[in-house]
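Protein in question quoted for reference:
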Amino acid sequence: MTEIYAERGNRGKSRTKTYVIVLILALVVLPVSGVLGVSGYVGWNLTHPVHQLLDSDPGQIGLPYKDVVFSSRGDGVQLKGWLVTATASPKTVIIAHGYRKNRLQDDVPVMPIVASLQQQGWNVLLFDFRNSGESGGDLTSVGQYEVQDLLGAVDFVQSQPDLGQQIVLYGFSMGAATSLLAGSREPAVAAVIADSPFADLKTYLHKNLSVWTELPAIPFDQAFFLVVPSLTGLRAETVSPITEIPNLGGRPVLLIHGQADTDIPISNSEMLQAAYPQAQLLRIPGATHVKNYATDPELYGNIVSAFLGSL
């Protein structure tokens, strides 16, 4: 009888131990699963943003333009844009917009800049990156694939004999970083203007991801880096302007950055200039993210005009 009671006691202890283990696992696994799930959901939304619709065109400010369609270099994603033409000019500026924006880049605003470029004798190609505006594609990669789109824009300009004698890339935020990448990879690019670029996407996200996710950095940032690459195939380490900018090989670069930019701090442009001492850096006091032109349009316009005039 004593042995029976002892056996029952041992079974009870075993069950209690099992329950404790299960409880501990639940307390650990469920929160981790929740963090991973939220990070995956937010990451998916960030890489699949809703397209911002076009609500105006260059004709509304009296600029001559035509609709154009061309393909991304490499994977052939269809891209749509506008070509604003100058009179008998072989020179073209290609505008590269920022994350979650479209070719209008209305937060700059870009259209007054386009009008000024056209008056100075530059054709201007504005287009929507993949998964933006009216272009095809269903994934926004913050430069990894957008660089192929921008190189496709270069190919399009070069295919037009009267446009491609001199090509300048001019980007904002994500488009600025992408312009530095494309210019570094494509010898046909004569110069780059980069307004508010990041220097290295992986480093930037490790410091600033919560700006975009609106989630606490701990524990969601690390979960984001674990989940999002497996969901999307994106690799932040492949988007590194600071690594590639030396490949511009002496070609002119104008960096523009607001000193009050908290989305992408000015230290990013300072690091890029350190990596490529030939680059000019225009600092705009008081300007927040991509608000450099809006903050001081006269200084901004004069520096950009002088830079283009020196090519």
Summary: Strands lie at 65-71, 78-84, 91-96, 123-127, 166-172, 189-195, 253-258, 280-284. The first strand starts at residue 65 and ends at 71. The chain is about 45% helix and 15% strand.
